[in-house]
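step: validate -> pass
step: tokenize input -> pass
step: predict -> running
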Amino acid sequence: MYVCVLECVGLADTKPTASQVSSPSRTHQAVKAQTTAGILSKTMSTATQKRLAHTPTMKSTSMKRPVIPAEFGAKVPTNIRQRYLNTFIDECVKFCPSEDFAFQMALDEEKLVYERSSSKNIYLNVAVNTLKKLRNKSKEPGPVANRKAQSHEDVLGGRLAATTSFTINRMGKQQEEKLSGATLYRKLKAYLMTEEELLEHGYPRASPKGAGKASVFNPGEKKIICCRCGAEYKINGNGSCIRKEECNYHWGRLHRNKVAGGWETNYSCCAAAVGSPGCQVSKQHVQDGRKESLDNYVSTFSKSLPPDGNGGVFALDCEMCYTKQGLELTRVTVIDPDMKVIYDTFVKPESKVVDYNTRFSGVTEEDLESTTITLRDVQAVLLSMFSAESILIGHSLESDLLALKLIHSFVVDTAVVFPHRLGLPYKRALKSLMADHLKRIIQDNVEGHDSSEDASACMELMMWKIKEDAKVKR
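step: predict -> pass
step: emit ->
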């Protein structure tokens, strides 16, 4: 049997002579011999060789991937950390010069994500944002070795240049209009909130009761309820708690997660279920209080506009702390369309501070020790800076205007322009909007938010929105 196979193979490997080519019968025999030899050789190789499964490889298999050591009682399971580390490595090897450098970069990124996270859910959110950042970095065009520089004419003058015509300015490609000054002001008018929306979202409006008074549409009951934990508590005439009682609350938001058999609602801060004891403890209960104290409000007034009709565009963000009377202003920041800070100051609250709310405001007791600026001083500056025709941009701006005790109608609210899919009372977080639309991570500082960063984010979001809507209209 083996001799026959060798003979057939020999026939297959032998080149046909001129007589064989001219003879149809011999040609048929040669083709038959080649086909038989191919089938037999494949059958023999299948029987003698062992098949190996294909295993995906990286750039190089010379180095072993790093492994995260198991840690007893870790806040994030080791297998989840290892999974994300491997994913980070897969992205890093795409743009790093060496495998060793890619491993170290992925380890540093994963370590940073772990240190910033206090629970598994927070780790997953931060890890996803980091993965987006690495993927965007891997898509950036890097330097290509030994590539000769080419001019635009050289690129166009290829093998098809003789039969193809090109134009530098394509008809379908239009130059983007620069968003500044009167152009930006005119385009933002399309996103202004209506009077009904201002009422629906709880913006302060002028009260018919008299000058300096405001009204807020609030159909709910007026009770002294802690705005953090929901417990009822009593205060005396000067706003102090009658009984000292700790406030046990969750600082995170509620999120619905799909599980086997239905849906589960958990807090984002500690992944605890609804109704579970709070994961944060403060000395006493606090209240919002801004919608109860509707005196000493000021309204922006009309001013003569320049010839181009630009009333001014500003982004605004405020930080607040808890006092005996509720939430009071501690910092205000205003930026212009060029992302430059034109006003930024700490503000001294009128009442005694109960909680500086540093986790979210970023304002500490040391920041307010030496400040002498009051709310009245801030109102005077803003009234000289804004007019009734100025467009103010912010995220849930009604909260800032309540803290400023300022009534204004020309408002663009990013929480309304980018609504939550479930509608009110749900609103999308500014951090989520920036990650989804501009692929940027904000509010990741453990020392609290930065009002200038939040104001700039709102301005950038609206400029992005205007450009995206312009593309659709084309």
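step: describe -> Residues 206 and 255 are 36 Å apart (CA to CA).
step: cleanup -> pass
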